[in-house]
Amino acid sequence: MTQKLLVLGGGFGGLYAARELRKRFGAEAEIQLISEENYFVFQPLLPEVAAGAIMDMHAVTSLRELLKGVRLRKATIHSVDFERQVVTVFQGVQRRPTEIAYDHLVVAMGSRIDLSRVPGLEEHALKMKTLEDARRLRAHIIERLEHADVTFLPEVKREALTFVVVGAGFSGIETIGEMKELIDRSLKYYPNIDPSEVRVIAVEFAPRALNELPESLAAYAVKQLEKRGVEILLNTGVASATGRRLVTSGGEVIPTRTIVATIGNAPSPVVLDMNLELAHGRVAVERTMQAKGRKNVWSLGDCAMIPMKDDATERGDFATPTAQFAVREAVQLAANIQRAVAGKPLKPFKYKSRGALASLGARRGVAEIFGVKLSGYPAWLLWRMYYLSFMPGFDTKLRVFLNWLLDSMRPRSVVALKAPQETAAHYVHYAAGDPVFEKGNRSDGFYTVVEGRFEVCLRDDDTGETTTYEVGPGGHFGERMLMGESTRFGTVRALTDGKVLVLGRDEFTKLTGTFGALGVYFEEYLKSTYALNWKAPQSDNKVA
């Protein structure tokens, strides 16, 4: 019987798990990988993408190219039913729900960034998690330099030329090092900016930077960055942030229009909804990487808490959430699934880190490899050689190498191309007979009719009763999102040619929660139309 092996997530853990499963099972298993994107992001290179050292497209590789023999499904994961052994995803233009059966499930969905604990940080901080984040940061930095070069207002110039990175771990240090190099190498194009006017700051809550490295190397890293003009504020947290300032836990106000957050890792909402046992927000697994209480569910990478010894309790007793560990975890996980299918005993995951490396920008780095400490240019060169060898796919290796070679000989470009972004509120046109959405589709927008007429059909699953009505200009549909529903309750189609204004889920929810009259309207509408009791969130803002 052909085994159905399903992998959720296309990061390091998911990619390498799928590849190892393919190697071990070959044609004897149907292997699928579900990812929201059809490419793999080599995350260690994101700071270099943000700094313009390499092109953004050269930090990614097609998953289809890397996963020969594995079926890739570009879709959004909605839920998992462990009893029926199916995963429901939303796919296609209409975001229709599709069920995918599995015999063994691998959860490798990584982590997301949650900055909600600090007032203003979620709204005003740039992140460094995705390719779009890196592209956005580069465009933002260049835009600040452009603004500072032409403004006549001293306070605006000071804010534009102050760059703050929150977090001084690997990601924070590498990001701030590359940011500083981009700024330094770009200033020759901006005659009205003096280097002394630029302020680059790292804010770290811990007593030292780079906790993952020996203290001597962390001290070296700080010293090198300080020589280049970077300020490192240790034992310092963030109290609040706005679009024009950051307030530290010590009360210092830093005027800035650039805040980059490299902190706040949190589990994916889908993982939280899986009803799996969690440990510190990650999937609790046995040493074999089986999810606790689930024999055919496995997890690895950032979203899994993998013990490295029996009765693990301390932080050092668990696998580090890094690419180095994820790749090795994938090998052992695939071997254990093969053993489980064959009815053989499983083996615990064992791996000892070979070391750690960090780039500081400006051809400087720090490294500890097999207990040997390196710093400066040799460590930076080793960092590049290591990650070049680590990149999946020969084409990716070649492109990145050529990028690095050109970057060493040519000046950095200050061209900042901004990717077009779909606005939260946008118009959509429909022809008569076109479906708008169907019952069960993913719920992701609120619709207000501008022109034409639309038919709304609601069916009660409990009673089988169907209600149909028309909506014309000024009317609306899709409002049940306010109840937190993630799938459509009814079906809507255009009766005539028409036009609607679509408002995204987050924006619609925020608007009803802050605009009192609108919130009251929907409270009454949901009660009278659906017999649902919904209360608009209370806002501190009062309507004058």
UniProtKB/TrEMBL annotation:
Gene Ontology terms: biological process: aerobic electron transport chain
Cofactor(s) it depends on: FAD
InterPro entries xrefs: cNMP-bd_dom, cNMP-bd_dom_sf, FAD/NAD-bd_sf, FAD/NAD-binding_dom, NADH-Q_oxidoreductase, NDH2-like_C, RmlC-like_jellyroll
Keywords: FAD, Flavoprotein, Oxidoreductase
Domain of life assignment: Bacteria
Entries under PROSITE patterns matching the protein: CNMP_BINDING_3
One Pfam family matching this protein: Pyr_redox_2
GO molecular function terms attached to this record: NAD(P)H dehydrogenase (quinone) activity
Domain Cyclic nucleotide-binding span(s) in chain numbering: 428-513
SUPFAM superfamilies given in the database record: cAMP-binding domain-like, FAD/NAD(P)-binding domain
PANTHER family named in the record: 64 KDA MITOCHONDRIAL NADH DEHYDROGENASE (EUROFUNG) (PTHR42913:SF3), APOPTOSIS-INDUCING FACTOR 1 (PTHR42913)
Protein's UniProt name: Nucleotide-disulfide oxidoreductase
Species annotation: Celeribacter ethanolicus
